[in-house]
Amino acid sequence: MGDERAVGTPVLRRLNTASVLRAVRDCAPDPVRLAELVKLTGLTRPTVGQAVEDLVEAGWVQHHHPAAASRKGGRPAVRVSLRGRAAPVLGLDVGPHTVSAGIDDLAGRRLAAVRRSVDHNRASRLLTVVDAVIARVLEEAGFDADEIAAVVVATPGIVDSGSGRILLAPSVSGWTSVNLSDHLRDRFRCPVRVENDANLAALAVARERAGPGTLLAVQWGERLGAGVVIDGRLHRGTGAAGEIGFIRPPGRVPDTDDGRGPLERAIGAEAITEQARRAARTHPESVLRDGPIDAAAVFAAAATGDAVAERVVDDVARTFAHAIAPAVLVLAPDAVVIGGGVARAGPVLLAAITRHLADLTLTPPDVGISGLAEDTILTGALRMALDEVWHQLPA
Amino acid sequence: MGDERAVGTPVLRRLNTASVLRAVRDCAPDPVRLAELVKLTGLTRPTVGQAVEDLVEAGWVQHHHPAAASRKGGRPAVRVSLRGRAAPVLGLDVGPHTVSAGIDDLAGRRLAAVRRSVDHNRASRLLTVVDAVIARVLEEAGFDADEIAAVVVATPGIVDSGSGRILLAPSVSGWTSVNLSDHLRDRFRCPVRVENDANLAALAVARERAGPGTLLAVQWGERLGAGVVIDGRLHRGTGAAGEIGFIRPPGRVPDTDDGRGPLERAIGAEAITEQARRAARTHPESVLRDGPIDAAAVFAAAATGDAVAERVVDDVARTFAHAIAPAVLVLAPDAVVIGGGVARAGPVLLAAITRHLADLTLTPPDVGISGLAEDTILTGALRMALDEVWHQLPA
DNA sequence: GGAAGTTTATTAAGGTCTTTACAAAACCTC
DNA sequence: GAGGTTTTGTAAAGACCTTAATAAACTTCC
């Protein structure tokens, strides 16, 4: 957005070539006829031809010689498609319990994915697992580390987006003293970015929704985090944007010393089960009285109409709604999407939150559940890595 | 960001001409030598020469024949400057008590400004005053309505940014049924935009600070509103972003039927005086006991060390901090800037808010007072109008 | 099996724009 | 008034896109 300096004729070619490449990408995994590109880009055929030639030479796209089926008569079209292997990206999700990695090609196809659980969440052990997982996923996809075009790592805690240092990570002991960023930069010859996991989950959710608008994507499990995506771009603020776990909800909150924030202590997965347990003790008529209680059980009970469970869920929903209402009023997001473990609660929780938010805000956002599976964060990391590659095309 | 279609050689000229025009603008009121533009834009002299020629022809810039002083020897330079009168913009601030208007030229120089107070804040009367103020400011600046290049109107309430309709405006009775946007579009031949006043104030404050980052600018008087500016661009969300007046603060809030939000009823200017009045009754040792009390008096008393006043101010600050803390956690703004009537409270209030926010947030933002005078909103409106003009240069 | 028709690729000429290079102008200083 | 300096102005060259015309390759129909 800053200065667009030194404009000579050559930039035209770069502009147009980029335009053609974008068009090829938008046709994603399918090969596209050259004539199609002419229509898509609005450029003329000779220009497109030149651009494609350049792109093939640079290795970004490849020809599809066998123009097999669906002929309508006429000279067979030259068809090209993205050469995915030109710039594969690596995503990494370093959680307190599991480490997963994935490699996507330029078109967003998943070439490999690895998931490994960690027994002890000590930092040193974690780092070893990270290295092992990276090695495995590279092998599975058949790439050398030097071929990777961008790396994005998701980690819990607060990350300084400039240096990649982890500033605060209560859930992994010793994690802040590990310079993960430098560690990885030694292994790869490409940009390495470390980013908060909730932020990346938000990015993944936003991409799934597509289109512009403001999104508040909440990760809700033992802990609570959120990411803000505005018109497809992640909002970082001074760095710690989206840390909803530290919102102080109304009412008393138990004091703990594990670095969790007030809202996490009030309505994190653990707090929900604890609340249900207390309620079950004083209300033995509830189905919650027997069997082990966890958050899923509470939501299941509420779904079947158990009054005690319903009250707990409503309480949780109200606390959550009150906590985020000020942010919803300030941001006016189009949607609030909930992911993470608690998201499996489904419609019961959703309805309660929607109801309370309607009371507390002027233009209540859509409240929804993230449709993505467990690898939301990993997908977000890969998405951001792809963005990085696409952003610096003219390399 | 969408599609940059149909790139031929002519776009180069447009691009470079725009680049030169930007450079001329950045030198703002001072005329600039042609050779200087060459350095600033990175283009070559013939290119700059051509561009300047085009711009002069189009009326955007003008020559400065008398190359008077500061010669260093050599052929006298051709100097050009922005022809401010080429595209004057009109800003309007329609408040419940006053209507003000201003006209800026392209370089941001204030050519005229008019302010008029309104006795009855009935919508029909207000509209008459608006028309009169517009006529007056046009006359003062010596322009015809058709010459204005952009109009931005600030109004309290929630505005649909697409249609310009006012959706909610409790402070002016009947204001929502007036189609201000259409009314003005009939008078001007240029784009007319209606925007929430707090949003425009935020824009003005953000421009004063300059540079990127996230800003939460609060307007705090009888009512409370805010605007969010991210990297220089106003954030609207679904339309009602920044409506902090409707945040529900902890504790009981008096119920009124005047359309004000809970936070406004709790710590609006009126609520502050009411709170002080109550405190003075039970604490006759306070200096607040004698003389008429208004918000300014409370802050003044607190500044001199009056304990009762100090407690009131601290209460207000705590309520405010608790109310916006969730939004601060989610947005992680670089700064929270307070404007409006209460902003005159100064350091007393500021210090208290800063203290409380430090407790409630992870990366506490700078808390400051808006340095702009009473015409913050008007300045913001003019700023946005200028942006509009600059955004659509290639007209 | 050949001709017509259709779709696409290729090639050549023309125009616009920037760049490079060079010459002219205008002013100051000595 | 000569020399120097800074700037403007002009012409030729290079790069790129576009229009238009031509050639190619394949399907379909007769």
Automatic annotation (TrEMBL), chains A, B:
Residues 17-63 form the HTH iclR-type domain. It holds the Pfam family ROK. Gene3D superfamilies: 3.30.420.40, Winged helix-like DNA-binding domain superfamily/Winged helix DNA-binding domain. InterPro entries: ATPase_NBD (IPR043129), ROK (IPR000600), Tscrpt_reg_IclR_N (IPR005471), WH-like_DNA-bd_sf (IPR036388), WH_DNA-bd_sf (IPR036390). Belongs to the ROK (NagC/XylR) family. This is ROK family transcriptional regulator. It comes from Actinoallomurus liliacearum.
